[in-house]
Amino acid sequence: MNTVVTSKEDILRASRELIRQRGWSAVNIRSVAAACGVSVGSIYNYFDSKAALVGATVESVWGEIFRRPEDGAVFGDAQACIAWIYGQMEYGSRQYPGFFTLHSLGFLGEEKVRGQMRMQQTWQHIREELCAVLKRDARIRADAFTDLFTAERFADVLFSLMLSALLRQDYDPSAVLEIVRRTLY
To answer: Which domain holds residue 108?
Structure first.
């Protein structure tokens, strides 16, 4: 086996590919080293344990699924943003079968705390972005939000609907888009 040191991104790319081909159970230090064509020690240069490798892979998968689109206009329109998020959820489900379900069940035992932390960070980022989009969308009625019904609270409602859709594996945003139309425009 070649002992050439590879990059952290190469390791994560190989880990994501193993998941696509063989599922989450395929990710371990030896299989990733083999996929990268490097020694096991080369993987340990970047990750001190399987848990660390899996945790970084989880973060990498979240980053791939919800990477910012090239068309930034998506974040100026609430309906376009919601449709994009649902499309990304569908993409993530196809590329990484079971990923969302694993997270909803607490992910892997040894990586539970770090996995949940990464999931919460991603979810918080999505909620914050939804809220920002709701505040930026020029088409939303000026009186749509009040002291009681804030953009933050509506973003939480939308996010809850998205989580429910993830668990049901329902990636059709039409019902949520109708709620947004009737509530805000």
So the answer is: 62-184
